[in-house]
Structure formats: structure tokens, C-alpha cells
Amino acid sequence: MKDLILVIAKALVDHPDDVRIHIKDDDRATTYELSVHPEDVGKVIGKQGRIAKAMRTVVTSASVKSSKRVIVDIIS
């Protein structure tokens, strides 16, 4: 899942070397905190959050077989 998020995020930003993911694992959910360069935050979020929503949809669809909820947070 981490690799999927990295591939999507690196394709969107101008500074792909600054893309980082921190994973927080809980009993009920796994949270992926996506950190990008401050100039690239708008590109990852998109107009009215459309790109962020699409990224969350893809990640959620890919994790259907797991019993945990998957959350993607975008951090500047």
C-alpha cells in the first residue's frame, strides 16, 4: 500500500525526492501520513480536494481484502 501511495504522489509533484510516508498502525485502522514539499501540497490536494479524494478512493479500493480501515492524511 505504501508503494502505491508513493507512486501516485511522486507522479503528481515537482519535488519527488521530498515525498515521505509515515505509517501509524492501530487496532482498527492503518494511517498513512503523506508528507510532501510545501510547494507541492496544492498539487497533491487538487482543486476542491479532488485529487486527494481520488487517491483515497484508489487506496481504499486496493485494501478491500484487509480487515482494517485505511486512512491517507496529507501533511505539508
From TrEMBL:
Pfam families attached to this UniProt entry: KH_KhpA-B
PANTHER family: RNA-BINDING PROTEIN KHPA (PTHR34654:SF1), UPF0109 PROTEIN SCO5592 (PTHR34654)
Main location: cytoplasm
Subunit structure comment from the entry: Forms a complex with KhpB.
Location in the cell: Cytoplasm
Family: Belongs to the KhpA RNA-binding protein family.
Organism: Paenibacillus agaridevorans
Protein name, per record: RNA-binding protein KhpA
Cellular component terms per the entry's GO annotation: cytoplasm
GO molecular function: RNA binding
Keyword terms, alphabetized: Cell shape, Cell wall biogenesis/degradation, Chaperone, Cytoplasm, RNA-binding
One GO term (biological process): peptidoglycan biosynthetic process
Gene encoding the protein: khpA
Function: A probable RNA chaperone. Forms a complex with KhpB which binds to cellular RNA and controls its expression. Plays a role in peptidoglycan (PG) homeostasis and cell length regulation.
Top-level taxon of the source organism: Bacteria
